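Same chain as my last thread, 246 residues:
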Amino acid sequence: MKLVKSVHDAIWAEYKTYREVSLYIDKWHEVDEWNNYWENFQIIQKESGDIDLLRTLHSMNGSDLLKMAIDMGVDTPDFIPSIPTFKNELKSDFKTAYDTFTKAFKQIESDPSLAIGLANSALESIVKEILKDDRIKSKTKGTETLYKLTSIIVKEFNFLNNSHPIEIRTIGSSLLSISQSIEKLRSEKTDFHGKTEEDYLITDSVYTYFVVNAVTTVGLFLQSYFKTKLPKPAKEVEEEHDDLPF
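reply #2:
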């Protein structure tokens, strides 16, 4: 019910007239006249003849509604729980990563392969931005891949230090494994680097949800740890609020 309402509001915010809304909905409508006039959902009209968007959306199955929500940039916490928090964090501190991740999110259903590549790039941007901080000793050349960047930040944050419990060190090692796997998926299982007909390509969005969820989890953790251990200097925080009217 909540998702339907959110999609309804997002569509009307984007398309201001009944005609535009109808044209958008028509793009999602599938009809098979030879199969007992099968249709994937019913387009319901008001007495005036204009589309009744709310009732039309309620006639959709969950899969089509989810695809439409993603296309409209509506958060879907039941499917990707960390998305709203992650997007808010990125928007305030990591503009490039935010733009890239938003593109990835919208491609999950329509182009799973592209979404994985963009998610990989978004996580790279987050780590690069953290490593730019003057208080961090390790510096990058700008050509490092996701795995190399994660190796640097894991070492910089001291996650593998023997003074930590084995569980913390295991999580640190897992960050490296996750980053390496995402990078390999991007390079070897998507068409980012070009593929032949014999090569395996990820085409099922269920795997893309898995990868995007992993990116949000790792990205949120690294960003939160960075903010906790290396908070912004007081002067920098004050400058951010200088334009406030109080």
